[in-house]
Write a structure and sequence with these properties.
Elements (H helix, E strand, L loop, with lengths): L1 H18 L11 H8 L7 E6 L5 E2 L3 E8 L2 E2 L12 E8 L7 H14 L6 E3 L3 E4 L5 E11 L4 E12 L1
Parallel strand pairs: 2-9, 4-5
Antiparallel strand pairs: 1-3, 3-7, 5-6, 5-8, 8-9
Helix pairs in contact: 1-3
Length: 163
């Protein structure tokens, strides 16, 4: 299942990146228009952490789970046209520091394949597991991303201690 999701995400991102190439269009966009474009696709959507709870103490293996409302995780639609309330997740541990295969497993391998390791670990499931995290305080963020990889503007954060 993870390999299938990884293959789908990889193909979709490749298509999305090909479509994101430079064009010589001289069109300018206002800051308000850019903000509106970045937050399209998730009206009334929300995401929140179930685990780890904010302020919790965890072991070196941390499985995060999120609850999502009014947003559908759609693995088969990654890289496709943006559809209101549909997409995937981007998890980011300590601003991406632990988003690679060493720490976030299959999600991190996919991040490496996509060239986004060190930024986030993509996921089409509401859970992710990080292993081997060093002791101390960590902050995990999750973002709802549209099918076409644009940011919905919906984010949640939790801070916990490994110790």
């Amino acid at each position: 299942m993870i390999k299938r999701v990884a293959a789908i995400l990889l193909a979709a991102v490749a298509l999305g990146l090909a479509a994101c190439g430079d064009d010589d269009d001289e069109t300018t966009t206002s800051a308000a228009e850019e903000t509106a474009a970045e937050t399209t696709g998730a009206e009334d959507a929300s995401v929140s952490f179930v685990t780890p709870e904010d302020g919790a103490t965890e072991g070196k293996e941390v499985t995060a789970e999120v609850e999502i409302e009014n947003f559908e995780l759609a693995a088969d639609e990654v890289g496709m046209e943006s559809v209101e309330g549909q997409g995937h997740l981007h998890f980011s541990m300590d601003e991406g520091k632990y988003d690679n295969s060493k720490y976030s497993g299959e999600n991190g391998k996919l991040a490496e394949q996509l060239g986004v390791d060190g930024q986030y670990s993509p996921s089409t499931e509401p859970t992710i597991t990080y292993t081997g995290l060093p002791e101390g305080e960590h902050t995990l963020e999750v973002y709802l991303a549209n099918n076409d990889h644009t940011d919905t503007g919906v984010v949640a954060e939790t801070t916990f201690t490994v110790g």
